[in-house]
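Re: Re: token formats

Sure, here are both.
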Amino acid sequence: MSLLSILVLALGLALDSAAAAAAQGFVAPRLARGDALRLGLLFGSMHALMPLIGFLAGSALDTALLRRWDHWIAFLLLGALGAKALWEGLTQRGEKDVRPAFRLRLLLPLALATSIDALLVGVTLPWMGAPLLLSLTLIASTTFLMSVSAVHIGRHFGKSIGRGFEAIGGLALIAIGIKILAEHLIGGH
């Protein structure tokens, strides 16, 4: 597998994380120092860990079973997180918490949901003749860079439009979950 092919794979895997990161930036009342970097590190780390797990456990796992359920897991996690954000955005009155978009208990399931496809990619890396360390490094660094950038882009638009858009961020997460589900169901993955 060529370096260009690995980079294209890394970009494709990072898109869902970047969209989720943009949604987090969009709904944040403010962006504290280090929030985008912490999110990027978590998303990038998860995108390195999941293919590594897939690579190591690929022979022991029933990959057909995993492929049947991965999109449903991502859909349910993103849907639940999005529904929660939508509900809070529509029902919350008064002053919002300063950093709800960047709490670890919210970001961890989000990072997991957006990296499930990377687990399956890890299973297939040996079949494609991809060097493991280079693949993991490119996948993680691409996800990190795209996620950090997306937080700032999302924050810029959230700030310029105004506050109270947590519901829109929730809808964005639900849309990402639906996109993942539709791609797998329509594409036959």
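Second one below.
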Amino acid sequence: MVINIKTLNNSDSKDIIDIILPIQQLEFGVPITLADQPDLLNIEDCYILNGGNFWGASVEGELCGTIALLRFNDKAGAIRKMFVKKEFRGKEYGIASILLDGLIKYCSENGIANLYLGTVDILHAAIRFYEKKGFVKVDKNELPVDFPVMSADNLFYHLALPL
């Protein structure tokens, strides 16, 4: 089995939405719609233009995972849109780790020293994953003033990267 990682752009929006919305709405019952996430329809302007990126993982041509880096200042970025289809989760595939490791490598190569993320407390597996990867829980008031907080998020994490 070969896992391919590539940068995604606006032409991939439909495939990205087809992964993310069902996980948010159906699997986890998060009350969020596409209208709440206009960034999914404009990947290039929202992520890539400011020095971030948006990646996808594919297995046998099927997009099965996503992760995005929203660069919000010269030295910091926010992890967004990290989702892996249920049937591709776990150590057998390792897709979440591959995506996160690639994002961290990109940060190191592009002078991003601090990674932040917001999540929802019901996403227990995701929280365990981030903590195993070295992310440290921070209070909302400890976030940088320019960190783009998402309304649904109620837990926040930080990872300092060596440059």
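Helices lie at 13-27, 43-48, 95-109, 124-132. The chain has one domain: 3-160.
- S.
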